Amino acid sequence: MKKIVVIILLALSVKGNSQFKKSMFGKDPIINLENFQKARVYYGFYLGFNSFDFKIDYRTVSPDILVSKTTGFNVGIVGDLKLQEYINLRFEPGLYYTKRDLNYPGFTSKADALREVNSTYIHLPLLLKFSSLRTGNIRPYIVGGVSTTLNLSSNSKSKDDNYEQKFRVKPWTKSYELGFGIDLFAEYFIFSPSIRGVFGLSDELIRDNNPNSPWTGNIESLKSRAVLINFTFH
């Protein structure tokens, strides 16, 4: 009986996958959600991954601070306002978790050389989405805009600094964003995978109390940048 059930489930899965491919990429697909594009306002949610980095500019030539990146997690909601047939205004507030390690050269002690930067962001992007013509159940798009981000783990209120192993950054930062994606119209919802770059505009670093600090003294600016991969459902 178990074998029969497994065979039936596999058959249904193969059939469903075949129907999905036919509806998306077939020669004459059934058009799903034909009136969805006519909606003035609609909402959704997204899940995804991120990889955050730091762009570091130095005051004088010196060995680079090495940034080790990890893969973080995104979750958020989407509000979409139709401005024109192919242009939409999107607000995508979300919660982002990420971690970066700063490896400083010139130290013999690991405790001094390593700074772990754990960040929990409330990310608030305002974006313009430019869609192409819809072909069957597929519609590519590009997206761009600006964002502001609140870092809940900034340590900005701490009086301790790197001499007490406390790395501090400013709580609010501004960025611009560029990316592209594709809307896939399924029978009951729209699935939109996308990839986007985030580029910090403002210096985030809070410098140590000692202006000659080996951790912050030679840094002209420190700005976040990231790659976001989101999977959105409408």
What does this protein structure show overall?
This protein is mainly β and 234 residues long. It has 2 domains: 1-30; 32-233, Beta Barrel (Porin). The chain has 2 helices and 10 strands. The protein has helices at residues 2-25, 110-113, and strands at residues 41-58, 66-69, 71-84, 87-91, 94-103, 114-131, 138-151, 172-185, 190-200, 219-233. Strands 1, 2, 3, 4, 5, 6, 7, 8, 9 and 10 form a 10-stranded antiparallel beta sheet that branches. A hairpin with a 2-residue loop joins β3 (71-84) and β4. The longest helix has 24 residues, at 2-25. The two termini are 38 Å apart.
Q: What structural category do the secondary elements indicate? A: mainly beta
- Average pLDDT reading: 87
Taking the sheet with the most strands, its summary is: 10 strands, antiparallel
N-C termini distance: 38 Å
Globally, the shape reads elongated
Strand and helix order: HEEEEEHEEEEE
* Residue runs with pLDDT of under 50 for 5 or more positions: 1-9, 14-20
Instruction: Give the domain tally.
Output: 2
Level-2 CATH architecture of the largest domain: Beta Barrel
CATH topology assignment of the largest domain? Porin
Percentage of β-strand residues: over 45%
Quaternary structure classification: single chain
How helical, in percent, are the residues? 10-25%
